[in-house]
Design brief:
alpha/beta; Rossmann fold; two-stranded antiparallel ribbon; 8 helices; 9 strands; 17% strand; oxidoreductase activity
Length: 253
């Protein structure tokens, strides 16, 4: 899919992996819609990259519909969706205070998995309305999972389940949307230097990095964005899940 001139929407684009992706797409000439529940962050990033700020919740049909309708009116219609919005909550299935509250599990699943599905289904409905391009393609969807989908650690039952669901959606979604010329791929990042880790002491960051075989450092969000670019531009990659983790395999703890 050609990025230059394409209308793109990135969820969770107010910071971290989403921000890096929004910057990459804007730098390559896309009309970028910065969608984030933090309106101030969305406005800041959109202002810096010449994009469009959209505040909203990925789990809300109304918010998602409004955002995607805006993106669909730009350029020759919505062409690119990158789902980066998500939360990471650590809680044991059975902790010191008893079983994990069901509401905690439901919240993680709702934001990470249902939010991704919500954006994907509504974006696909708009992509099918676009005209075929010269390569017969209409759109590209890139979702964000995690290596926790494969090696969830203690305390990651809910998070791993949500990311495992995103991994599981890649192939059936790609197969279903293939007849419309819409591709679906997923990135499963390892340990990246996102705002969640910025606040950790340098010693803690170095400890995390030491577990990564090569390169032994935390991932740069720009490297995630480069992978998204590859998945958007390479037409033959479809229904795939790419681990982006420096060959790490997470230990139980």
């Amino acid at each position: 899919m050609r990025i230059d001139g394409s209308s793109a929407l990135v969820t969770g684009a107010g910071s971290g992996l989403g921000e890096a992706t929004a910057r990459m797409l804007a730098g390559l000439g896309a009309i970028v819609h910065v969608f984030d529940r933090n309106a101030e962050a969305a406005s800041k990033i959109a202002g810096e990259i010449g994009g469009v700020a959209l505040a909203g919740d990925v789990t809300s049909e109304a918010d998602a519909t409004a955002a995607l309708d805006t993106a669909a009116r730009a350029g020759d219609g919505l062409r690119i969706l990158v789902n980066c919005a998500g939360i990471g909550v650590s809680a044991r299935l059975l902790g010191r205070d008893g079983p994990m509250p069901l509401a905690n599990y439901e919240t993680v699943i709702r934001v990470n998995l249902i939010g991704t599905f919500n954006m994907m289904r509504l974006a696909a409905a708009r992509m099918v309305e676009t005209a075929e391009r010269e390569d017969k393609g209409r759109g590209v969807i890139v979702n964000t999972a995690s290596v926790a989908a494969f090696e969830g650690q203690v305390g990651q039952v809910a998070y791993a389940a949500s990311k495992g669901g995103i991994v599981a959606m890649a192939l059936p979604a790609a197969r279903e949307l293939a007849r419309f010329g819409i591709r679906v791929n997923t990135v499963a990042p390892g340990i990246f230097l996102t705002p969640l880790l910025y606040n950790l002491p340098k010693e803690a960051q170095d400890s995390l990095a030491s577990a990564i075989p090569y390169p032994s450092r935390l991932g740069d969000p720009a490297e995630f964005a480069d992978t998204v670019r590859y998945l958007v531009e390479n037409q033959y990659v479809n229904g795939e899940v790419i681990r982006l983790d420096g060959a790490i395999r997470m230990q139980p703890r």
